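Lab notebook, bench 4. The sequencing result for the construct came back, and we need a structural model before the next group meeting so we can plan mutations. Quick request posted to the team channel:

Model the 3D structure of this chain.
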Amino acid sequence: MNLDVGYHITKYLQVQASIYNLTNTHASASQYAYDYRLTPTSPIETGSTYHPLEPRSARFSVTVNF
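Done. Here's the predicted structure in token form:
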């Protein structure tokens, strides 16, 4: 779950704050299952690999339009 909050201060100036992984969930962003061999002559094994979610982080920005 992410949170984005922004505010237009003037017609040309905007501030924004973003918080990513708000609940600090420890889960997989993606997971893959496939067959592999450790050596060319070893038997085929089935395994899975995954990419974990990024840890909680924040970003602050100021945008000026002209």
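The chain is about 0% helix and 60% strand.
Will bring this to the meeting.
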